[in-house]
């Protein structure tokens, strides 16, 4: 999704802006641009189709000086990816605007503005903001007044920033549905759509709230709420890592983040479990009371986070004995659902800014859920701020578009939550709790062990490089792990992949089986093993190419058409987390062989902040 960076300083800011855009590249984009104004009121705009590096090269060739500027990476929604559609957009020679999100009423506004004589040079919805600000300024008042009147006319979700060449030390920003954070410096101030963009210039941040408008100069930041009242927002000291944007010894962020999983899980567990039990209070103030009263769990999420929810559904019902539904946020938010008594809503999200998940949370809060909890990876994100309880996954910044450590840490946090719920409801005995907690203690070492299969899986990946389709099979909580595996493969290698609950094969997908259809099976040694073996036979009998990631004690023999990848025996409860890792490695190596853009797959964005 789009990214915004802005700066008001005494020094030249172009490099800060470009570095900020680089740090936002992981979000996905197709063009980049910036506009900088200097003390002599010269405004220079530079936009390029493609990578931030292309913009940086253009800047090297044609340096842009000035202390106030805005910059943007665009992910096309209205109008194709092109230089004309790249931000900043301008009205005349004075007003420059960047914008994340969607202006839903841009068509009627465009019509009104055209009647007023404005000429549009792009197909974007954003350009209406620039012309509206220009128009409102003509009607009188300051840039802030004009901007306040402008945003009052906008419908949709946006984070937007405006700059006026004639007023070169001021930026005005508005947040409505798309995050904006202000970075506080000494004698200089910054803003961005994600604090990560600014970590090289400051660690002190103010998060704008819904409806806030901020006026930012070198020496001051003034914030006004939706009613126009001056408000104070708390200053947060960021603890995010400095070097999150550094790949270190790894070739890709996805690879780095896959290998970070043992330490990420240690961080998730820290202070939340002791030798034998889950410390319920550590899940958040009031968590204990909420869990005691909970009679139903409703999980809402998208993509990989949804898959984590699907695993958790098995756990909530089989371990804690509490009914659980899981739904994709974009469906839930437009469905006329029935709220069950004492139902706890749990949103799952790496970014905490996924538009559909956030909208579902807001809707659910109106519809009588007992409490809203979130399992999230980004402190200060909208989901965290708007939920009653936030359980942070502490995975560290995840930059690769393909989610890896966010997923396994979500599962780790959810397993703790399920255990805590069962304990509070009396369905999980002290012995059972101790057994789960001991498994959680062993988990980081087991994930470490899973990562040692990297070389073997790299060799195996060769078999998939010329394939156009793949089928992943699992049963029980390994069915959603198969879903996650197929999502990973399709998003980074562009191989069409499907996941099926293995028992469902004969109800349709068996028709697809032939020698060109690799079938990847997740086969832990659990009570469904014999059933799964029958499903595997169904594939074998039809000439399918099987790749079975099997518990070494499960008794599989390699044979024609069936490759066995023996996995060490791991505790049953944590096995879904363990088996995720070889699946991530497989997708990664297939994508490498295919030469795709692993960290920024085509058409995808890291944080999906539009509907
Ligand atoms: O930030 P979120 O977890 O809310 O994001 C949800 C999905 O967009 C995300 O998981 C997506 O499916 C990933 N690209 C999958 O790897």
From TrEMBL:
One of its GO terms (cellular component) is cytosol. The active site is at residues 2, 606. Residues 287-427, 460-601 form the SIS domain. Keywords: Aminotransferase, Cytoplasm, Glutamine amidotransferase, Repeat, Transferase. It is found in: Cytoplasm. One of its GO terms (biological process) is fructose 6-phosphate metabolic process. It catalyses: D-fructose 6-phosphate + L-glutamine = D-glucosamine 6-phosphate + L-glutamate. It comes from Enterovibrio norvegicus FF-454. Catalyzes the first step in hexosamine metabolism, converting fructose-6P into glucosamine-6P using glutamine as a nitrogen source. HAMAP family: GlmS (MF_00164). The gene is glmS. Pfam families: GATase_6, SIS. InterPro entries: GATase_2_dom, GFAT, GFAT_N, GlmS/AgaS_SIS, GlmS/FrlB_SIS, Ntn_hydrolases_N, SIS_dom, SIS_dom_sf. PANTHER family: GLUCOSAMINE--FRUCTOSE-6-PHOSPHATE AMINOTRANSFERASE, ISOMERIZING, GLUTAMINE--FRUCTOSE-6-PHOSPHATE TRANSAMINASE (ISOMERIZING). It is an enzyme of class 2 (transferase). This is Glutamine--fructose-6-phosphate aminotransferase [isomerizing]. Its EC number is 2.6.1.16. One of its GO terms (molecular function) is carbohydrate derivative binding. Residues 2-219 form the Glutamine amidotransferase type-2 domain.
């Amino acid at each position: 999704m789009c990214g915004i960076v802005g700066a008001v300083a005494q020094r030249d800011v172009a490099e800060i802006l470009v570095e900020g855009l680089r740090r936002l590249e992981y979000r996905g984009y197709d063009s980049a641009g910036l506009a900088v104004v200097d003390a002599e009121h010269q405004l220079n705009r530079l936009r390029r189709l493609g990578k931030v590096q292309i913009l940086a090269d253009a800047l090297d060739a044609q340096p842009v000086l000035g202390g106030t500027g805005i910059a943007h990476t665009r992910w096309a929604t209205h109008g194709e990816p092109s230089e004309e559609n790249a931000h900043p957009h301008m009205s005349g020679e004075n007003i420059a605007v960047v914008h994340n999100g969607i202006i839903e009423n841009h068509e009627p506004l465009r019509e009104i503005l055209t009647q007023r004589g404005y000429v549009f040079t792009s197909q974007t919805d954003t350009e209406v903001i620039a012309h509206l600000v220009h128009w409102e300024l003509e009607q009188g008042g300051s840039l802030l007044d004009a901007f306040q009147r402008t945003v009052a006319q906008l419908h949709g979700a946006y984070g937007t920033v405006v700059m006026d060449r004639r007023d070169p030390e001021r930026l005005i920003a508005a947040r409505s549905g798309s995050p904006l954070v202000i970075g506080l410096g000494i004698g200089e101030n910054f803003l961005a759509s994600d604090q990560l963009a600014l970590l090289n210039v400051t660690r002190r941040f103010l998060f704008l709230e819904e409806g806030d408008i901020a006026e930012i100069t070198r020496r001051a930041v003034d914030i006004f709420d939706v009613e126009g009242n001056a408000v104070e927002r708390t200053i947060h000291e960021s603890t995010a890592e400095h070097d999150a944007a550094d790949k270190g010894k790894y070739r890709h962020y996805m690879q780095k983040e896959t290998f970070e999983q043992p330490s990420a899980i240690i961080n998730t567990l820290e202070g939340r479990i002791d030798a034998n039990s889950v410390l319920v209070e550590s899940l958040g103030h009031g968590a204990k009371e909420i869990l005691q009263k909970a009679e139903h769990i409703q999980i809402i999420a998208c993509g990989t986070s949804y898959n984590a929810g699907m695993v958790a559904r098995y756990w909530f019902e089989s371990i804690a004995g509490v009914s659980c539904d899981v739904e994709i946020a974009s469906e839930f938010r437009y469905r006329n659902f029935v709220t069950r008594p004492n139902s706890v809503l749990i949103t799952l999200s790496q970014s905490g800014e996924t538009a559909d998940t956030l909208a579902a949370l807001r809707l659910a809060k109106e519809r009588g859920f007992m409490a809203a909890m979130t399992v999230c990876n980004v402190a200060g994100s909208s989901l965290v701020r708007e939920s009653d309880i936030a359980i942070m996954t502490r995975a560290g910044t995840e930059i690769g578009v393909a989610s890896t450590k966010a997923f396994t840490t979500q599962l780790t946090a959810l397993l703790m939550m399920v255990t805590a719920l069962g304990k509070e409801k009396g369905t999980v005995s002290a012995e059972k709790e101790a057994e789960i907690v001991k498994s959680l203690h062993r988990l980081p070492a087991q994930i470490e062990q899973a990562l040692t299969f990297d070389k073997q899986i790299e060799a195996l990946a060769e078999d998939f490089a010329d394939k156009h389709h793949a089928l992943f099979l699992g049963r029980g909580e390994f069915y959603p792990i198969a879903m996650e595996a197929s999502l990973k493969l399709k998003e980074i290698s562009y191989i069409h992949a499907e996941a099926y609950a293995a028992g469902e094969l004969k109800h349709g997908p068996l028709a697809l089986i032939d020698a060109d259809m690799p079938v990847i099976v997740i086969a832990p040694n659990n009570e469904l093993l014999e059933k799964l073996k029958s499903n595997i036979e169904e594939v074998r009998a039809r000439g399918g190419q099987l790749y079975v990631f099997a518990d070494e004690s499960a008794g599989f023999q390699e044979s024609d058409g069936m490759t066995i990848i023996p996995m060490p025996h791991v505790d049953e409860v944590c096995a879904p987390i363990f088996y995720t890792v070889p699946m991530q490695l497989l997708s990664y190596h297939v994508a490498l062989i295919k030469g795709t853009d692993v960290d920024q797959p085509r058409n995808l964005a890291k944080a999906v902040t539009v509907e």
